[in-house]
Amino acid sequence: MQEVFRFLEMDLTSFEVIATWLVLAVALVGLLYALFLRRQILAEDKGTEKMIEVWEAIRQGANAYLTRQLRTILPFIVLLTIALFLSVYVVPPTEFSLEVFAGYSEQTIRLIVGIGRAVAFVMGAGFSLTVGQLGMRMAVEGNVRVASAARTSFKDALRIAYRTGTITGMLTDGLGLLGGTLIFMLFGKAAPDALLGFGFGGTLIALFMRVGGGIYTKAADVGADLVGKVEHDMPEDDPRNAAVIADLVGDNVGDCAGMAADIFESYEVTIVSGLILGVTLTLITGHNEYILYPLLVRGIGVVASIVGTYLVKGQSDDSGNAMQAIFRGFLTSAAISVVLFGIIALFYMDTVPGGWWRPFLSTAVGVGLAIVIDRLTDYFTGTHYRPVKEIRDSTSGGPATTILSGLASGYESAVWSVVVIAATIVAAILIYTNIPVAQFTSDRFSPEFIQFTFVLYGIAMTGIGMLTLTGNNVAMDSFGPISDNANGIGEMAGLEPKARQIMADLDSVGNTTKAITKGIAIGSAVIAAVSLFGSFITDVSLVNPEALASGIRVSQPLVFVGMLLGGALPWMFSSLAIRAVSRAAGQMVDEVRRQFRIPG
């Protein structure tokens, strides 16, 4: 058994072994919950023949995009799998791997680690692809059922839309936890070597699905609006516009598949950095709790998301109730998470240096960050608050004042989000400052290195705490395109005004939930980047202690040049992406114009 599951060689207590298996079981329960919701959704009515006809066109378009995307990505996965296998000759196995596989020759250890990295990369890429592909397919399955339910009940339409989105959320939650836990169980303390590939796999697919999906989405959107709205004065989602179906497919591509893969990548990266730093702290202090705690927190998150998402139900047919119901489910998951974090920390982390309250507080701060960003984004995008009302009032002055008002609100919201994220990182630093490290100091581990590692662990745990509510976050994001598509199907199928109003109300709420999720995704990506970069520094410092002391000094010309080039990269990528959208939109406009010239 120990030859396969190397975590059993780590002198774990019976509780820790059982808890690890339970975390794996919880990940599978999350996936089973997604399957349960899928069966529920597919059992719902799809509506009239006209609705099914429109939906079938959307489904075919979505399948065509996903198939093409898969064919494009697969060669890169194959090439990078080979590169990850060969990387073991550039980045040799860590001392943890040499210790875990001590009975083998150095060449055999390299082979084991190389295969581990390659398989973990395929696992990360495959899981990320699964989240995006299956999530988008379920979003397409759900939209027509939401439109059908809107003919009779607002509550049913809300329930179907949110639970369809929850399927994507639980796939993200379950697969992310499953991958991280499996790698830890198979490699034990050598997990950081394999986790390198797991995180990279998720990042690669997130890049393809986010950027590629974004280009498709905006090209379809611009193409449909330029010809339909501007040139022919048609309403939104008019069936006479040949680009409408591509536009509806694009909503799913960008806001469902792309965002799900993006959040999955942050989910992977935070757990990778948490485990790498946990292994380092275990080496320093001898406490295995630092490795297990991130997995336990993630397991709690899956359970909390299951409860919170299932409780999202409209209490009346009042459209204003939708956002309240969604946020109530979000808060329920947050409350369950924080309470269980406290219980686990109190009874499991009570013997670690600095006390149990530090790991608990760092994860609780992460949950708080998710809630604050949720509220901030809702304030700046919700129709009931001052910023949106000011933009509405500015429309009386024409397009120029409307654009200026919108930009001003957007810039202001970005400032407050950055302030909140910065405050969270500072809080994580303060929580892990002044830990008594003298007893762990040695010739190998300086006090500065130990303190630095503790602080980075606190930041990583903040990111893990923030993404505890991943199931809820992705459900909220997918809710947007599902509601938008349902509204489009209702328009093209000519449903009655009451049903159209219900779908328009859901679409309005969906626009807010999409914005909220984008804020959470960006915030989590910042914390994930800080913690992952820090975990790599600690890994390097174990081999080269001078690396931490030298640091990154702006006064060094090469470092300054690197910062200048790094600062320019976002503008370069933005330019390339906008040009790609412009080219694709231009081709779409030409095609739609051609079809408008066809008689009949």
Q: How would you describe what is shown here?
A:
- This protein has 600 residues and is an all-alpha fold.
- It has one domain.
- The chain has 17 helices and no strands.
- α2 packs antiparallel against α14 and α13 runs antiparallel to α15.
- The radius of gyration is 25 Å and the shape is globular.
- The mean pLDDT is 87.
Contiguous uncertain segments of 5+ residues: none
How far do the termini sit from each other? Answer: 71 Å
Q: Which outline best applies?
A: globular
Largest sheet: none
* Count of DSSP H/I helices: 17
Q: Quick one: how many beta strands?
A: 0
How helix-rich are the residues, as a percent range?
over 70%
Strand content: under 5%
Computed Rg:
25 Å
Global structural class: mainly alpha
Number of structural domains? 1
SSE run: HHHHHHHHHHHHHHHHH
What do the pLDDT scores average to?
87
Put the structure in a nutshell:
This protein is mainly alpha-helical. It has 17 helices and no strands.
